[in-house]
Amino acid sequence: MEPTGRRATGELFLPELCGLRPAFLVILFAQLLAIMLALAPAGEPRSRFETFGFISLYTQLIALLIAATLCLARGWLARLPEPIAVGTSYLLTLLATAVVAELAWWTLGARPGPIRSGHGAFLLRTLGISVIVNALALRYFYVQHHWRRQIEAESRARLQALQSRIRPHFFFNCMNTIASLTRTSPVLAERAVEDLAELFRASLADGTRLVSVAEELRLARHYLEIEALRLGDRLAVEWHIDELPQDARLPALTLQPLLENAIHYGIEPLTEGGTITVTGIRRQERLSIVIANPLGLARPKRAGSRMAQDNVRERLAAHFGPDGTLTISQTETSYTVQLNFPCLSSDAHPDR
Hints:
By secondary structure, the protein is α+β, with helices and mostly antiparallel strands. It has helices spanning 20-39, 45-72, 74-78, 82-108, 119-164, 169-184, 186-203, 213-231, 255-267, 303-320, and strands at 210-212, 235-240, 249-251, 274-283, 286-294, 325-330, 334-342. It is built from 10 helices and 7 strands.
């Protein structure tokens, strides 16, 4: 857990205020505030609208200078402890307000026009409004920032929990296979240990990260090679994956639990074994990976299968939202699971 007042390097509670869209939002907010201020003073409606132009321009200048100041100071503020960054940001907003107020006074204060009060009263009234509005705005940004951090932390914890729920019983099967090979075929046992190490490394990695299709297929092959040592000629795998871009991203260890289901519920119950088919499909910016396995006449209980499938489905949804889905279809002789997810390259969606 992070110490109080500290955060990851470069992380700041303020939103990004540089750019056209933030500038537009700042102008819009300032204009709404100007309308409220123009309608607030007592007097004839005509006198209110006479000052509206000045109040609108005045408020816009203050808001834009505050946004520019916080934008320029963002890198420096991000290196400060959070309480100091919050206090410094507040002082910068008041300083920017005071600068615009002083410029407005010395530009228009000595002329007949919208400024009808003394220098001190004008400055205090402007700063008083700024104290309230900027305090509310910074408080809103602060609460939003920490709410987002909490949501992200909960999402990471959920993904890690889903990762840890991937059924580990194949590890015990692997260990039994390796133990049986150590005397009869030490070379195969050594290769199985290396394959198992790769799977362990992937299962213990950060559950929130995305990996390339190439890496995920490599892990799937490691798993299938270990199972092939146990099942021998009863297990065959056909790969039709030329359409899949190798740099596309998907959650780590997505294919392994589905292949494990295909073996456990499809291949093992069949005396003669069978063939698992893995097919990759690309439709514009959508990718699909289809895993099909044969079914015998006896229908096994599929509670464990549903657990693994629900796990994969939830992880796809956590990373891709509604664009990440898992669908299932079944006939008398085959069982098919299809992964659907957007085609995101490493540049579009880097590892987190």
